Amino acid sequence: MTKTIPSQSSSLDDWLCYLESVHPANIEMGLERVASVANNIGLLNSPSKIILIAGTNGKGTTARCLESLLLAQGFSVGTYASPHLIRYNERVRINAQELDDQYHVDAFHLLEQGRKDTQLTYFEYGTLGALAIFKRCQVDYVLLEVGLGGRYDATNIVTPFASVITTIDLDHKEYLGDTRELVAYDKAGIFRENTPAIIGDLNIPHTMTDYGDEINANMVLSGSDFIFKENAHSFTWQYKELDLELVKPAIPSQNAATALTTLSVLNLLPTEQVIKQCLASLAVEGRFQQLSEVPLVFTDVAHNPESARYLANKLSSYVDKGFKIHALAAMLADKDKAGVLKEVSHLVSQWSVASLGGPRGDSAENLNNALQSISQANNIHSYSSVAEALDGILPQQKNDTVLIVFGSFFTVAGAINYFKK
């Protein structure tokens, strides 16, 4: 990794290599360092209205839904998401479009000038860089996805116009705790006094609402204040006097309902016709994304039990149509492998596992062991990489089989790159 500080004329790759080398840890929770740098360069006085989005799953799809609905009304929108699948530029969008490298280079150069001796992690650089770009572009609304938890995440230095919680489940236990109550309390840290706080989870832990009551947040709760119900091909959404029946989008209906409620609370909800048009065109990379029609291949970032349950629901519709499921899993070492695999195992007739490279990647052997612990799966095929697995699987895949490649953003990126080549 480079030790030399890049310049404003350096490439984005040079800057990203440098950012990875500045801080000894990938994650360092806390807001003081990040807020200090943000104040030094005036990032916290932007006129944009910020919607802060936290949750174990569903942040990206909720943000994409909000983005579409706001853009359809003529607002300018900046969106920050992580991690990326293929290239860093995916993390920051202006009006649903990625930006040229130079925008990111300019932002990182500004941060390097303003941070002085303060160390920042890669994610903190990315967050502040996004805020710098949004201020530069003077967008009307910023959709800011929380990276990890909420209370001590770098994104939480802002003053939100509204806070949104999508779902609450166990992930990153070493940072957030090993119960839903602990996770919920941490995520509730993005709430602010007298500020809308929309919670889309279907079983909200009391620690979240207790904290919201304590600070007098204006909470709007799924299941009581707003309700959604799924039917075979549609879902209904009710909030106050609103009662709409909408076609199921390509994202979870729960997240669409949360996004609709958020905009309604903020008096930003478009007409029913615009809502239907936006939901019909929604698509999010890496979320049950079809990579091939013949053979039939999908990929999904599901990497914790909750997201695996949603994936299982999608796969079950193909099982009902008579398809067999071949699953190719590759995961990170710090994830609940057995918990994830168990959620889909009852649908899978053939398993393959692959190793993921990098310092956090897990081995095919460990995935194989996890599978053996939760099912009687036989004849599991192991591969050294996702690409090697696809080389071996695709030539033999039959027309009555769906291949699902899942387990991590890295897994999805490997699958997407394979099919692009």
TrEMBL record:
Gene Ontology molecular function: ATP binding; dihydrofolate synthase activity; metal ion binding; tetrahydrofolylpolyglutamate synthase activity
Pathway per the UniProt entry: Cofactor biosynthesis; tetrahydrofolylpolyglutamate biosynthesis; Cofactor biosynthesis; tetrahydrofolate biosynthesis; 7,8-dihydrofolate from 2-amino-4-hydroxy-6-hydroxymethyl-7,8-dihydropteridine diphosphate and 4-aminobenzoate: step 2/2
Domain Mur ligase C-terminal, chain residue ranges per copy: 286-408
Superkingdom, natural source: Bacteria
EC code(s) of this entry: 6.3.2.12, 6.3.2.17
SUPFAM superfamilies: MurD-like peptide ligases, catalytic domain, MurD-like peptide ligases, peptide-binding domain
Positions of the Mur ligase central domain: 53-196
Gene3D superfamilies, alphabetized: Mur ligase, C-terminal domain (3.90.190.20), Mur-like, catalytic domain (3.40.1190.10)
One GO term of the biological process aspect: tetrahydrofolate biosynthetic process
One GO CC term, this protein: cytoplasm
Classification via InterPro entries: Folylpolyglutamate_synth, Folylpolyglutamate_synth_CS, Mur-like_cat_sf, Mur_ligase_C, Mur_ligase_C_dom_sf, Mur_ligase_cen
Keywords: ATP-binding, Folate biosynthesis, Ligase, Magnesium, Membrane, Metal-binding, Nucleotide-binding, Transmembrane, Transmembrane helix
Listed transmembrane segments: 401-419
Pfam families cross-referenced by the UniProt entry: Mur_ligase_C, Mur_ligase_M
Catalytic activity: 7,8-dihydropteroate + L-glutamate + ATP = 7,8-dihydrofolate + ADP + phosphate + H(+); 10-formyltetrahydrofolyl-(gamma-L-Glu)(n) + L-glutamate + ATP = 10-formyltetrahydrofolyl-(gamma-L-Glu)(n+1) + ADP + phosphate + H(+); (6R)-5,10-methylenetetrahydrofolyl-(gamma-L-Glu)(n) + L-glutamate + ATP = (6R)-5,10-methylenetetrahydrofolyl-(gamma-L-Glu)(n+1) + ADP + phosphate + H(+); (6S)-5,6,7,8-tetrahydrofolyl-(gamma-L-Glu)(n) + L-glutamate + ATP = (6S)-5,6,7,8-tetrahydrofolyl-(gamma-L-Glu)(n+1) + ADP + phosphate + H(+)
Biological role: Functions in two distinct reactions of the de novo folate biosynthetic pathway. Catalyzes the addition of a glutamate residue to dihydropteroate (7,8-dihydropteroate or H2Pte) to form dihydrofolate (7,8-dihydrofolate monoglutamate or H2Pte-Glu). Also catalyzes successive additions of L-glutamate to tetrahydrofolate or 10-formyltetrahydrofolate or 5,10-methylenetetrahydrofolate, leading to folylpolyglutamate derivatives.
Family under the similarity heading: Belongs to the folylpolyglutamate synthase family.
Protein's name in the database: Dihydrofolate synthase/folylpolyglutamate synthase
Native source species: Pseudoalteromonas carrageenovora IAM 12662
Gene name in the database record: folC
